[in-house]
């Protein structure tokens, strides 16, 4: 970029008070572009613009809002190649992932919420006896979804397109206005999304984007008295701090936080399916995904074979430049994060785990790469088995019977998505219902994009995706009348 990116506030592209900072390609360490550093005053102005726009936007016909989302989806899909190239450069995702799982999913999410759904539904009538509240009557009622108001959307670095779209699209569909605070590592893609919405005809102030490396930017976007709700994807530690602020202001929250997904593999499992599913941790976003099955619980009868096959799988994966067609594993987001992941691998060794494969830095001249690493002979009290590493590292723990497998899976602070592999479908579903997780994959790591998504325990608050996201970005109002 020859000049720096501008902020998007109140329908205007404005110069940032704090200047610009470099966005670095994690594969080449080259500069991708210059991102804007907003001041607190500019963040407050974005929140005020969203507040001013809320009234008219919330009263806009749902069909008109849907039409804007549909046009935005078309613009995003029509710019798939340049948008995917930017996403690849900012995040280090492989070309296929940037196209299909980042930009492609973002377009699909805008299309999904361009579908108007009923916002009200009848409540069964109730017969009330005469009393101090009035004469006897049959009381009718209607439950109506109303927009929350101004929503601050704080997005994650691992998928700037799909994560932002998953917040912005349902929030706008429900009649909310938004202030988006992208992750500092890769905010440029989110500004392209704002351009697509602007081209689609979104009114001034309905969508605002402010970025920055300073924690003050996020704090201002959360603390603003103009904000009614915060939607956050990121670490549990940051989520707790946001929750404290939201609690003081009685702001609504939707939080998708950390995960340490347990994959329970029983003796009768299809090992090929289990290995392929668990192996996505090594490759998909280079393990930088909260839904990854990073904690493998293997029944002893299959433990040795599973470890050997996972090691073989990881060893075959091509690590390198994500632009190359044969690359499967790209870099992690930054040098600091690479150091963090490597420190966990070393910690695992000190705790007594065995690095069956990986554990060393690949021989590449540039980029923030981590070799896919399999840690065997782990126990559930090791930090590598309890803490979210957010990299291409899998820990394997043996267990004896079903009860022990379930107990180990539930012995964690997290509860986002767990997995069960067994050819005994009845047992798989029985075990799934015993797991304290917001989602469970049975013989798959695939997702149903209409199913509710969110976590138990420290993995989050609330549910989104599909119609559940429309509920998440709305308040429910009851209207009652005498029949």
TrEMBL record:
Kindly give the InterPro entries that the UniProt entry links to this protein: Ald_DH/histidinol_DH, Ald_DH_C, Ald_DH_N, Aldehyde_DH_dom
Ranges for the Aldehyde dehydrogenase domain? Answer: 13-479
Q: Could you tell me the keywords of this UniProt record? A: Oxidoreductase
The answer on whether this UniProt entry bears the keyword Aminoacyl-tRNA synthetase reads no
Q: Which domain of life is it from?
A: Bacteria
GO MF: oxidoreductase activity, acting on the aldehyde or oxo group of donors, NAD or NADP as acceptor
- Keyword Oxidoreductase set for record: yes
Similarity section:
Belongs to the aldehyde dehydrogenase family.
Q: Would you tell me the protein name for this molecule?
A: Aldehyde dehydrogenase
Question: Which species is the source of this protein?
Answer: Streptomyces resistomycificus
């Amino acid at each position: 970029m020859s000049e720096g990116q501008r902020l998007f506030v109140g329908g205007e592209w404005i110069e940032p008070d704090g200047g610009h900072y470099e966005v670095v390609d994690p594969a080449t360490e080259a500069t991708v572009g210059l991102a804007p550093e907003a001041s607190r005053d500019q963040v407050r102005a974005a929140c005020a613009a969203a507040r001013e726009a809320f009234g008219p936007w919330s009263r806009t016909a749902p069909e008109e809002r849907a039409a804007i989302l549909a046009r935005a989806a078309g613009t995003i899909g029509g710019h798939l190649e340049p948008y995917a190239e930017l996403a690849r450069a900012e995040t280090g995702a492989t070309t296929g992932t940037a196209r299909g799982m980042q930009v492609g999913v973002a377009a699909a999410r805008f299309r999904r919420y361009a579908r108007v759904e009923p916002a009200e539904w009848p409540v069964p009538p109730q017969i009330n006896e005469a009393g101090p509240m009035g004469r006897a009557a049959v009381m009718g009622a209607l439950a109506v979804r109303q927009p929350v108001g101004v929503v601050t959307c704080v997005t994650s670095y691992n998928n700037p397109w799909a994560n932002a779209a998953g917040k912005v699209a349902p929030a706008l569909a429900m009649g909310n206005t938004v202030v988006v605070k992208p992750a500092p590592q890769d905010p440029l893609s989110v500004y392209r999304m704002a351009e697509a919405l602007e081209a689609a005809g979104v009114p001034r102030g309905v969508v605002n984007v402010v970025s920055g490396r300073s924690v003050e930017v996020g704090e201002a976007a959360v603390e603003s008295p103009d904000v009614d709700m915060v939607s956050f994807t990121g670490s549990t530690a940051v989520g707790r701090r946001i929750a404290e602020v939201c609690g003081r202001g009685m702001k609504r929250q939707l939080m998708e936080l950390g995960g340490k997904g347990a994959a329970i593999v029983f003796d009768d499992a299809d090992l090929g399916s289990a290995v392929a599913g668990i192996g996505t941790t090594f490759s998909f976003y280079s393990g930088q995904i909260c839904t990854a099955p990073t904690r493998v619980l293997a029944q002893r009868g299959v433990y040795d074979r599973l470890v050997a096959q996972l090691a073989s799988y990881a060893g075959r994966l091509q690590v390198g430049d994500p632009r190359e067609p044969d690359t499967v594993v790209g870099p992690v987001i930054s040098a600091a994060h690479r150091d963090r992941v490597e420190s966990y691998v070393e910690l695992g060794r000190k705790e007594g785990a065995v690095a069956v494969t990986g554990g060393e830095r690949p021989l590449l001249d540039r980029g923030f790469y981590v070799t896919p690493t399999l840690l065997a002979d782990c126990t559930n009290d090791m930090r590598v088995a309890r803490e979210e590493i957010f990299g291409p590292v899998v820990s394997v723990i043996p267990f004896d019977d079903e009860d022990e497998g379930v107990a180990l899976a539930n012995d964690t602070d997290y509860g986002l998505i767990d997995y069960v592999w067994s050819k005994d479908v009845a047992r798989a579903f029985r075990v799934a219902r015993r797991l304290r997780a917001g989602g469970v994959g049975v013989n798959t790591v695939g997702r149903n994009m209409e199913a509710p998504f969110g976590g138990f325990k420290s993995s989050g608050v609330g549910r989104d995706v599909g119609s559940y996201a429309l509920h998440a970005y709305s308040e429910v109002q009851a209207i009652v009348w005498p029949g």
